[in-house]
Amino acid sequence: MADFGRHPSVKALDESKRLPLLVSWRLRREQRRSRTGVLLFAEIREPVRSLTHKAGIVSLWEDGVELCSRTRDAKMPKFVELSPGLHRLEFKVTRMRAGKSTSFLKVVDLQEGEILVALCDPVQSNVFYRRSPDADTWAVGVRSRRDPDLP
User: Fold this and answer.
1) Averaged over 40-69, what is the pLDDT?
2) pLDDT of 81-132, one tens digit each?
3) For the chain, where are the E strands, in sequence order?
4) Under 8 Å between Cβ of 38 and 63
5) Would you say residue 46 has pLDDT above 50?
6) Which DSSP state fits 19?
7) What pLDDT, on a 0 to 100 scale, did the predictor assign at position 150?
8) CB count in 10 Å sphere of residue 148
9) Contact between residue 118 and residue 103 where contact means Cβ atoms under 8 Å apart
10) Of the candidates 32, 71, 100, 115, which lies 20 to 30 Å from 132 by C-alpha distance?
11) What mean pLDDT comes out for the span 18-39?
């Protein structure tokens, strides 16, 4: 893992935290299908037609292979199916200037039917209508299917 110079703020995603609507819909859909994997969502508030290149690319890597990424052009939650077992995942926010990029590693042991939910709120310095965090903020946690009769 390359040290990008900055460190993101990483919190555990607790059960009491309300997920964004698109994330909860996608999570329920994948849980109904009894799938195992990762659900990545980046809260990028920059318009698609913006002329700046300051927006970061939020991505998820395993063993040097990019599993998925989210940009200002692709804002919907992305699900990637993984096999049950131990996974060494790297979460990155990459920017044009390397000194502004961040990353962290997390080792996760996924059981059958569990989904790792990763929410990212990257620093967006040119957004006027909602204050951006001072550091890239991640909330990461495993959600499992609790009710076998889930609709």
Assistant:
1) 80
2) 999 999 999 999 888 765 678 888 999 999 999 999 999 888 776 655 556 6
3) 9-12, 37-42, 57-62, 65-70, 78-81, 85-94, 102-110, 115-121, 137-143
4) no
5) yes
6) P
7) 46
8) 7
9) no
10) 115
11) 92
How far CA 54 is from CA of 114, 118, 119, 147, in Å, comes to: 34, 22, 20, 42
Please report where in the chains the tokens 């990762």 appear, as a residue.
Answer: 38
106: which 2 tokens?
Answer: 């997390």
Helices (H), the chain: 21-32
The per-residue pLDDT for 3 is 46
Residue 29 φ/ψ, nearest 5 degrees = -60, -45
The neighbour count for residue 101, using CB atoms within 10 Å, is: 19
Statement: residue 39 has pLDDT above 90: yes
Q: Distance between CA atoms of 151 and 149, rounded to whole angstroms?
A: 6
pTM above 0.90, yes or no: no
Task: Give SS3 for 58.
Answer: strand
Q: Side chain identity at 125, as an amino acid letter?
A: S
| Contact in structure between 9 and 139 (CB atoms under 8 Å) | no
In whole angstroms, give the CA distance from residue 128 to residue 113: 40
In terms of Cβ atoms closer than 10 Å to its own Cβ (0-12, 13-18, 19+), residue 132 is: middle
